[in-house]
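Q: Integral membrane protein, please. Structure only.
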Amino acid sequence: MKKYAKAAARWAAPAVILLQVVLVWSEVLSVGQAVVVGVTLEVLLLGVVLAEIALARRTYRVSRAEGADGQQAVDEALRAVLPGPVAKAVGMELGLLRSMWTWLRRRRDIAPGQEPLSYGSQIRPVMWVMICLTPLEILAIELLLPWAAVRITLLVLALYGTVWVLGFLGALSSRPHVVGNGVLTLRFVHFVSVSVPLRGEVSVQEVRHSGYKKAVNIKDGILAMPIGDSTNVAVTLSAPVPVRPKPGAPEQEVSEIRFSADDPGAALTLLQGCSLQVPSEGRTSE
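A: Structure for Integral membrane protein:
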């Protein structure tokens, strides 16, 4: 019953709004009745919204207390009060703005006791080229399209695209991989965050693997989070550990972690500083 109650709460606000629209367009009520019903629904909607705000705030605080970073806590709070697809879409947009704001303030989404591992240097130039081409895109729209409505629409899309790319760049800098407190957390901007507990003896190698097609790949006990289609650091665990590839997904056993770092040598040094055993020689695998 608790599960169904939570699901109903997520759909309560959209359902009330939809009911208001249906009543207005169907004309099944008189003007007086419509006013009474409308006011009642508005009060109901306000109550639902206030309850959801309280639930979201409580969920956010609990997530942060359990060690989640800011973006993970926001995602958990949204999933507590919104339907799954809506929560994901809203979380991505909020994450975009949050990452850009954090980046502009020269901060990073790192908890006490964690050390950062940067990634994404190979895709940053492409992002900057896209931003630099935006003025040319806007100029072309103004010169080539005679329809004002189309020009305004494309201008808004171009500006939004620029904000999106800036948020993406901000997330690359403000949300690095992090190591600390016995956990390696791998990220891909504000879209993905996977935490792996480091237990027992662990070996680390600078080694290239390629051919990956997804942001998160788990197969045969190997977790890979590439940039592009490749990784350049491999961490081998002495025993499998449970990993949840995404919120709500079942846990899977992982014994090797592969990821991409801007400076693999620095990544090995940092992991070695966390009392991990690092082999003296690496290997290359394509």
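A: Brief note, in case it's useful. The chain has three domains: 2-90, 124-173, 178-273.
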